[in-house]
């Protein structure tokens, strides 16, 4: 996938990031999903968009361009998660993982942080091979 291919699908990412950040996200995406058949390019685009959105969450400079602020807020997963536990004294709350992914136990856990990641999780689940144990 080239930068032009990616930006044709997601023009909102154009001119928002340093060239090295966009190039790195695309290179990492291109190194993955070779076994996704016809969905390979879609998975790569979603992965790159997810990574760039995470970058926008964490690299927001003071006085950032309004379009970068909009991208970061629009890409964030806004779904509510059920509360798994709460504590009143010293106020503590723990949210349940709505999709069964534990952030401590899987490399896929950050995919739940963006809308692009959630779409990619759907593709990953569609291409997951069931484990056969004779």
Key words describing this protein structure:
mainly alpha, two-stranded antiparallel sheet, 134 residues, 7% strand, 46% helix, single chain
Structure description:
By secondary structure, the chain is mainly α. The chain has one domain. Helices cover 46% and strands 7% of the residues. The chain is built from 5 helices and 2 strands, in the order ααααββα. Strands 1-2 form a two-stranded antiparallel ribbon. A hairpin with a 4-residue loop joins strand 1 and strand 2. Helix 2 runs antiparallel to helix 3, helix 3 packs across helix 4 and helix 3 runs antiparallel to helix 5. It is flat, with a radius of gyration of 17 Å. The protein starts with a helix and ends in a 7-residue tail after the last helix. About 4% of the residues have low confidence.
